Amino acid sequence: MAVTVAGPLCSGLDVLAQRAVMPMPAVGDLLAVLDVGAYGFTESMPLFLSHPIPAEVVARDGVAALIRPRLDPVTWLDQQLVPELAKAM
């Protein structure tokens, strides 16, 4: 089946592939995208719109290794502190 693969940004330009032939994905399926550029952590805007920080995997000689786990927004949102001044407002 031909599908459009798009990223999580709020822009119509955030399309990785159009008419990609692949099985219809389901919620929870994983899709590997090589050479992701701005989608990788080091070139992305971390914390943008509270999107999760993606996991990063390196593959070499047929062996894949997780080098950075996925971080869900709750990881950093739960660490935010509300100053006393803000509570009074």
Mind sketching the topology for me?
Layout lengths: L1 E5 L8 E7 L34 E5 L2 E6 L4 H5 L6 H5 L1
Antiparallel strand pairs: 1-2, 3-4
Helix content: 10-25%
Count of helices? 2
- Order of strands across the biggest sheet? 1-2
Series of H and E elements: EEEEHH
Structural class: alpha+beta
Question: What's the architecture of the largest domain, going by CATH?
Answer: Beta Barrel
Q: Looking at the structure, what is the overall shape?
A: extended
Report on the architecture of this protein:
By secondary structure, the chain is an alpha+beta fold. It folds into two domains: 1-31, no CATH class; 33-89, Lyase, Ornithine Decarboxylase, Chain A, domain 1. It has two helices and four strands; from the N terminus they run ββββαα. The strands form two sheets. The chain has a two-stranded antiparallel ribbon. A hairpin with a 2-residue loop joins strand 3 (56-60) and strand 4 (63-68). The radius of gyration is 17 Å and the shape is extended. The model has no long low-confidence stretch (mean pLDDT 80).
